[in-house]
Each structure stands twice: as C-alpha cells, then as structure tokens.
Amino acid sequence: ILAAATMPMFGNYILEAKESAAKDNLRILRSAIEMYAAQHKDVPPGYKNGDTATIPEGTVAAAQLTKKTNILGQYDSPGSPGYDYGPYLSEIPRNPFNKQKTITASALTLFDNFTQAVGSGGWLYNTKTKNVYLNWNGTDKAGVKYLEY
Question: What's the pLDDT tens digit per position in 11-23?
C-alpha cells in the first residue's frame, strides 16, 4: 500500500528533473550557438565552410560546436594550427526524454511553427533563427509544450 501511494510522487519528481535538465541543456546549447556565430562572422553552426547558401547539417553543427574551428567553420582536433576557435561544448548534451544527442538542422522556419516532434533526434535546430528546441511531444504540468521550451 505504501509503495502504491509513493510511486506517483516519485514519478512526478523524475518528470520534473527531466524538464529541468531539458531547460538547462537548451540554455547551454543556445549559448554555444550564439558564441559560435559571434566568432564566425554571424554564421551559425551547421554550414560547411561557412557557406549559408548550402543546406545546413546537424552533424556539421555538432562537430563545429565540439571541435576546434577556423573562421570558415572548418573543424579539426584541438592543437591543429589555424583552428583558433572553440570548442564551445565538450559534447552535445542528451535530450533527457529520449536520451538522443543528435541535432536535426534546418534553415526553414518549420521548427518555429511546428506542432509535433520530428523523427528521433534529440534536438531541433533552426539555423536561420539560431534557436534550438527540445525534440519531444507533450506538455509539462503547466501546460507548456516541450517543443516550446
């Protein structure tokens, strides 16, 4: 009986911890994206060779945020000559709900107007607005969509 009474309480604490971790991870990711763009002539991570005419890629954004880069956004291991910027993160944080670290990037405004999560990645990233979102459906206890964090 005692276990049945306390389990819902622990479930709420676990959910609140995930929500708190998600908000903190979003803050960290957003800060790293802003710092990267500030040091790369306002070009956000995700573009190969800093070319915003190309389609942004989440894997490129992740590498640019976690490795050393040059002014064009080309990345290499720490210690490589000419790669003077970053890394901005030691690793991409996990989405606490689905445990994914991957980034889905797009230059479209689709991530600013979506109603449901996309695929299985951890994070949705709009290079045009430089904003990143939690890739998870549902709402928190205040009724706020996780996608709107």
Answer: 578 899 999 999 9
3-class secondary-structure state, position 145: strand
d(CA 125, CA 79): 28
**How big is the chain by its Cα radius of gyration, in Å?**
17
Q: What's the pTM? A: 0.87
CA distance 23 to 34: 17
Q: How far lies 119's CA from each of 6, 12, 63, 122, in Å?
A: 34, 26, 21, 9
| Amino acid in the structure at residue 4 | A
Q: Is 6 exposed, middle or buried (0-12, 13-18, 19+ CB in 10 A)?
A: exposed
As a whole number of angstroms, the distance between CA 126 and CA 106 comes to 5
pLDDT at 115: 67
Provide the angle, in degrees to the nearest 10, between the axes of the packed helices 58-66 and 2-39. 80
Whole-number percent of the chain with pLDDT over 90: 71
Residues 6+ apart with CB under 8 A from 142: none
